[in-house]
Amino acid sequence: MLEKDRTAPRQHPYLTRKHPAIGTKLKDRQTDQPPEAVAIAWSAQRRLHRTWTRLEQRAKRRTIIAVAAARELAGFCWAICQVE
User: Fold this and answer.
1) pTM greater than the 0.90 cutoff
2) 3-52, pLDDT tens digit by residue?
3) How many domains, the chain?
4) Structural domain boundaries enclosing 60
5) Could you give the CA distance from residue 28 to residue 62 in angstroms, rounded to a whole number?
6) Cβ neighbour number for residue 37 with a 10 Å cutoff
7) How far apart, in whole angstroms, are the C-alpha atoms of residue 61 and residue 36?
8) Is there a domain that residue 40 lies in?
9) CB atoms within 10 A of CB 22
10) Residue 28 counted as domain residue
11) 18 belongs to a structural domain
């Protein structure tokens, strides 16, 4: 059975509802990370929030919005894995 890493940062589509901001905890987590990965993560956060708000304005169901955000999030995760 796999053990879960409780200290690993988690991203969930429902977290993109909030307006993107960099708090103290996020700043601390990003200190030793590659700048390319931080830039991809920031653009992902902004784009996912924009996607969420646009689909909410079009009166889509939250489950549909979450699936759309999760699909985009998977693409951003792939992009971060490609950073060397």
Assistant:
1) no
2) 555 554 555 666 666 677 788 888 898 898 889 988 998 899 899 999 99
3) 1
4) 34-84
5) 31
6) 15
7) 34
8) yes
9) 12
10) no
11) no
Q: What is the pLDDT of residue 2?
A: 45
Contacts of 58 (CB under 8 A, 6+ apart): none
CB count within 10 Å of CB 16 equals: 25
* SS3 track for the chain: CCCCCCCCCCCCHHHHHCCCCCCHHHHHHCCCCCHHHHHHHHHHHHHHHHHHHHHHHCCCCHHHHHHHHHHHHHHHHHHHHCCC
Is there a domain that residue 77 lies in? yes
Cα–Cα distance list, 10 to 6, 26, 73 (Å)? 9, 11, 12
Question: With contact defined as beta carbons under 8 Å apart, do 73 and 63 qualify?
Answer: no
